[in-house]
Every structure is written in structure tokens, then in C-alpha cells.
Protein 1
Amino acid sequence: MAQLNLGSIKFNWRNAYNASTAYSVDDVVSYLGSSYICIAASTGNVPTNTTYWSQMSSKGTDADLLSITSTAQVTFIITTDLQSQDLQLEHQVSI
């Protein structure tokens, strides 16, 4: 009966894609914000080449931080107790 070593079934993370690196089946790289797994031995074939690579995850959409707007209102309430000379500061924030 054939034996299967489950410890050898895993992805091999190779970091960012490098055109001069030789990749083997199950090597995983990042490329332009997405992740790809090598499905056929490859050197110099970009991860978008579906003969050698399969996309595992797609890059998400970056937030456009310049177009995010909000209005905030901050209220400070200062109270004093002249007899005990205590000063209390309370602030409230509404967005």
C-alpha cells in the first residue's frame, strides 16, 4: 500500500516574484498586490501567465483617503468647585 507524507503537502512561500528565480510547483509568490501559485516549473514567466501560474488571491481596492470626509464636533465642559478648588474637565466627541 502506498504511503503519503502529509507533511510534504504545503505551499512554499517565496516572497515577491523575481524573474530570475526558478520556481517549482506549489511555490507561492506575490505580484502586483496579488498572490499566485506555481502550477508548472517556471523561470522568467510572470505570474499572470496562466500556463505556469494560478491566482490564489486578488489585490483589494485601496481606499482613497483624500476623498474621505467627516465632520467632528468637540465639546469641552469645565466645572469648578470654588470651595474645594477642584477643577473637572469633561470632553465629548461627536462625529
Protein 2
Amino acid sequence: MRPVSFPSSAPNDSAGAIAWLLGAVRELALASQEDIAEVADAFTITNLTETRTLDCTGATLGDLCNVVGTLISDIHKRGTTRGS
């Protein structure tokens, strides 16, 4: 995986934060020649509240973090119904 860099912090508004997160995930995907599951395995998720619903008109930064954390957790498990 090649080195990647992201802006220091996501914008405070929901639309900007969503765009920042999507860009970050896209950058990670482009930087890696590894399987996405192998990339996800390098992440450690803490204090997660599993969230699979995102209200794009009123999401908070915490909501976005929980959705991304849930996605990474599901990739760790290789799907939403597989064991950890």
C-alpha cells in the first residue's frame, strides 16, 4: 500500500463530512493493491454503536463515524451475518 494523506479534519457540516469520508475511503481504495478485507483488518474500532442507517440531511459526525465503523466491522467479519 502506498502512503496516503488526508486533510487534517473533516468539515463540521454533514455534507462536507460525508464528502470527506467518501474521499478518504476512495483514497484508501486507490492506494491499495490489497484486498479490501485485508486493508480493513489493519483498523481497530472502539466505542462502536453499530449503525446501518444514515440520514444524509441530519447526520452528525458521530453518526458518520458509527456508519464507517460498522462498515469496517462488517468487512472484518466478511459480511453482516458472519461471526467475528
Protein 3
Amino acid sequence: MQTCYRWTGFLFVCFSLAGSLPLSVNSLSPRVQEIYRKVVKFIEEHVRPFELEVLEWQRTLTGKDRWTIHPKLDELKVRILNEL
């Protein structure tokens, strides 16, 4: 059985080519649905606004510094773990 993933513009939908129903957020357990909602909210509130800041920051770097991780990224990692 082959499994495929399709981007819906907001999330990947997993489905099987064997004819089973697509996996949707509603088919997940209530606990996982809550985690999903928290992750989506975190991305919308913290990650998306941060993306532009990172792009602008990366444009200012040259040479080996271009591979430096943005200092705020570690803060976001800790924050998401605390919010879940």
C-alpha cells in the first residue's frame, strides 16, 4: 500500500492509494487535536512574524556568518516546549 502526502496550503494531508479515507484533523484523538491547535496557534503568533526578521537578519550576514543560527530561535524552541 502506497501512502501519499498532499499540501493543502496549510497542512499536509496523508492518504493511502489503497482507497482508505484521508486522514484529517477531525479524525485524530481529542488530545492530538488540542496539540495540533496549539502548534498552529504558536506558528501563526510567533513563527510566521519571526520569518521576515530572520530573512532580513540573514541578508546582513556574509561568509561563514551566513550559517549562524538566529539567537531568537533557541528562545522559540524553549517557548513551544513550555506551551505544549
Protein 4
Amino acid sequence: MSATLLVYAQYNALIYFLVYIMRIMTLKNANMHPITNIERLATELRKQRRARNISQQALSEQAKVARRTITNAESAGNIGLKELCRIVNALGCELALRPRDAVAYEELSTIFKDEG
């Protein structure tokens, strides 16, 4: 194999490796900053469960769903609407729909805070 081909092969391997790393970093960043409604819901479910110091297993028993359903819900996987409602109820929360541009009551304090 000539030296030129060897350098070219190494260059291609490096490019594939860098693309792979960039994909991993993109996935990690996507999980850190939820974009879709499903990702925001999954993040909020996880946050609510952790705030109550409840394990996935304990929540699944309270909600009467499989532990895998909790895992799927918290990772933006597919679960049924009934299962979602059971999980939310077991967390002592409720689901609400609102227009995207509507301001929630909880957000008002950040909108009208003093900047002085």
C-alpha cells in the first residue's frame, strides 16, 4: 500500500470518528435542553419523580404500570395515554393543555421581576 493511500485511509477514519463524536454530543445536548413537547414532558416527569424522592419502581407500583413504562415516559418513549395519566396522577400532578404563547401563572414572577 502506498504512503498516499495510507494517509488517505487514516484521514477517512479520523473524519468518521469525528462525525461519530459530534452525533453523540448532539444527542447529549438534546437531552440536556429538551426541544419538543414530548421531551419537555419526559423531563418534567423525571424532575417531579426525583423531587418526591420516588424510585421508578415505587412510582410504577403506585401508578399500577410496568416499571418499563416509567422508563419509556422519562426518556420520551412511547406510552399510552392512560398510562401517562396514571403516572401523572401518582405524582400528584395534573395534565393541562394551553396555547404555546400563553403565559403560565408560575412564569409571571419571572416576567415582572424588578431589575433594580
